[in-house]
Amino acid sequence: MTPSEENISDLPKVRRLEAVGFRAWPAASVHYDGSWLFRLTAGHPSRRLNSVNPLDPSDIRDLDIRLQKAAKKFSDYGRPLLVRQTPLTPPKLVAHMDAAGWAEAGRTIVMMADLATLPRDEGLDHLPSRDVGRFVDARIRVAGDDPALKPGLTEIINAIKPETGLFIFEEPDFGPTAVAIAVHDNDLVGILQLGVVKEQRGSGLGTAVLHAALRWAKLKGARQAWVQVEADNAAAIALYRRAGFKDVYQYSYRGPAAA
């Protein structure tokens, strides 16, 4: 079953989660072609920030022409054309990509949890940082990412408009051990960029930083949490399911076959 065939009966929830997801991880450049949302970010290679996002299953006019225009726009940014296929993607567009042999480039599960299930805790044992530069340095070290990504990641986080908590766990003689971002948007909170340093994975740090972020958001008024986790990341999926997260829908990235 493809991402566009799942959860058709719950499209309002999908639409809302897509909208808060875009706000939580903003692209540098946003354009519309009808209901197709183009997100492009020259400073960061994230597929979520560099993809076409169809938002109306009934918007199927001029598919070939629009895909050609999209390819040109992405090429101008030095990015490959990617369509982010969700339950909102028109089935006719999915069939078009299938017939043309478009490859699937990664699948992601969107999950939600009710914060009422969190353990009762009247306080915060870990306060978020306001220092974006410090958080970005910690995230790059924890994830083992290329330090060249720092300017782009800093720009993305600074562009987040909803209230944001930057969580950094550290040890004095080691440095950062775990990180997470909590983006509080009305009654929802998104958890992004959660990571644990390789040497300490499996020690409970992932659960600790996740719960710290969720407790902060709950005190801010959030009632439900959402995450987007890659389908092949078994450890992360297990972490979120232990915390009460359940699958809502999936999406994948589709790109034209190489010539």
The gist of it:
With 259 residues, the chain is an alpha+beta fold. 32% of the residues lie in helices and 29% in strands. The protein has two domains: 3-109 and 251-255, no CATH class; 114-250, Gcn5-related N-acetyltransferase (GNAT) (Aminopeptidase).
Describe this structure in words.
This protein has helices at 11-24, 63-76, 91-99, 132-143, 150-159, 205-220, 234-242, and strands spanning 29-33, 36-40, 51-54, 83-85, 103-114, 163-171, 175-185, 188-196, 224-230, 246-255. It is α+β, with helices and mostly antiparallel strands and 259 residues long. The chain has 2 domains: 3-109 and 251-255, no CATH class; 114-250, Gcn5-related N-acetyltransferase (GNAT) (Aminopeptidase), CATH 3.40.630. The strands form 2 sheets. The chain has a 7-stranded mixed β-sheet with strand order 4-10-5-9-8-7-6, sandwiched between helices. A 3-stranded antiparallel β-sheet has the order 1-2-3, covered by helices on one side. Strand 6 (163-171) and strand 7 form a beta hairpin. The longest helix has 16 residues, at 205-220. It is globular and about 55 Å long. The relative contact order is 0.19.
Low-pLDDT runs of 5+ residues are 1-7
How many β-strand stretches? 10
Mean pLDDT metric:
92
Order of helices and strands: HEEEHEHEHHEEEHEHE
What gap, in angstroms, lies between the N and C termini?
A: 27 Å
Strand order of the largest sheet: 4-10-5-9-8-7-6
Structural class: alpha+beta
Radius of gyration: 19 Å
Considering DSSP H and I runs of 4 or more, what fraction of the residues is helical?
25-40%
> How many distinct folded domains?
2
Look up the CATH topology of the largest domain.
Aminopeptidase
The CATH class of the largest domain, by name, is: Alpha Beta
Outline: globular
**Can you count the helices?**
7
Return the CATH architecture of the largest domain.
3-Layer(aba) Sandwich
Largest sheet: 7 strands, mixed
Percent of residues in beta strands: 25-35%
CATH superfamily of the largest domain: Gcn5-related N-acetyltransferase (GNAT)
Protein name: Acetyltransferase (GNAT) family protein
GO molecular function, one term: acyltransferase activity, transferring groups other than amino-acyl groups
Pfam families: Rv0428c_C
Keywords: Acyltransferase, Transferase
